[in-house]
Amino acid sequence: MTAHDLVLEGHGIRLTPAHPDDAAEAWALTDAPLWAGMTTPWPASVDAYAAHVERQRETPGMLAFTVRDAETSGIRGSTTFYDLTPAQSRVEIGTTWYGRAFQGGRTNPAAKMLLLEHAFEEWGLNRVALRCDARNERSARAIERLGATPEGRLRHHRIAGDGSIGDTLYFSILREEWPGVRAGLEARLTG
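Above: the chain's sequence. Below: its structure in token form.
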């Protein structure tokens, strides 16, 4: 599965298929500290970011998205479905980052609402997993605020982009938990 044509829109944002043409605008929102905790090194130039997006597009089981403002089409960040395994009825959501101006607001809950809604209601999956570097407390808190259930810690599971070895925290949402998670996200998005 390489390039895809899935577009998801709602709650003031639009998820469009990631494309190397997005690199200049997207890269300008990143920096090395923002990227910390990713398993890939920070793409230190527009060309490096474009190559990163191209690798995502070529990765089997990954659907990478550029997160945009629904009205202006301005880029806010990026997120992906990955490890999509339809035969096992599961997917992971991750490789997510947002420009600093879009952190802590409505962007992440809106993007997760669109992705989770698609995974459970369109694809009919049984499980959506999310994970983060255990050192990334901000991401761990954001995942828990979504309503995901902590599943545990995988020790020395990831090598970060800077070469350091870290643990991975795993979380999941099951199909039967989705209505409650959805209600919580709706409350956050309308509150």
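The two ends are 37 Å apart (CA to CA).
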